[in-house]
Target: Probable 5-dehydro-4-deoxyglucarate dehydratase
Amino acid sequence: MTSAPLAARLSIPSGPLFFPVTAYGPDSAVDPDTYRLHVRRGVEAGAAAVFACCGTGEFHALTPEEFGTCVRAAVEAAEGRVPVVAGAGYGTALAVRYARLAEDAGADGLLAMPPYLVKAGQEGLLRHYRELAAATALPVIVYQRDNAVLNPATVVELARTEGIVGLKDGYGDLDLMQRTVSAVRAAGVEDFLYFNGLPTAELTQPAYRGLGVTLYSSAVFCFVPEIALACHTALRTGDEATVHRLVDGFYRPFVELRDKGQGYAVSLVKAGVRLRGLDVGEVRPPLHEPAGDHLKQLAQLIERGQALLEEGM
Model:
């Protein structure tokens, strides 16, 4: 584990936040060697951080033992060059268990996934995240989405909680997000981090930047890091022409393809990694593989994205 605090290392991102897929072998067992290679390539390509065993990494499909193996492999592959953040979720007791496994594996922080199944009230969600933060030395980023949508007052209380350093928004309500950022700022908390956590976040990142949210997750980085890096640089430097070219020619068509199948936010990304030459295996059920014609469209889209980069050179 590195000595620099996670929040300080993430506050000014040098590149996209990398959410690697989890590699499986032919027998569907976790393949730590291929996973390690996948993570290492991402770090060397310019990722600012590795978020291991989160949504794109099929957190839901991993046993605690597999989770520990993968987080440890990610830490080994990162070699301290960038922070490694691990997922933690389900009910409070299991989230704490995953947090301790991540801590033992050398992770630098946690992404707290929404609680499993239940639709809890604000008081219960606040207690859940506070108990998780109190049970681990790792800093916690709360992931807002689905059944864990927080009102601004709750986020203020989370921001005041020791050990909770940020909010990742996968809900996509910009009005709510603006009110949340404003409420936390008005409460005098100045170092709280915000992340755009929507699927294919590059598509909505121009809007999130208007709220002051510069951090975002990039699943696309898994299989076309060169495109993700070019988009990140363009967003950071205000190169609107490049942002528009990539959004119009690659990201919007990718999102339209992604929306053709349930679970494609993970399985299509994993297919993209395979198309680029690294056999990370198929997704585990209940997710399913993309249809054959969708794979052909993905291959064509990758070629189109690379051509767009050449056009801008």
Q: What stands out?
A: The chain is about 50% helix and 10% strand.
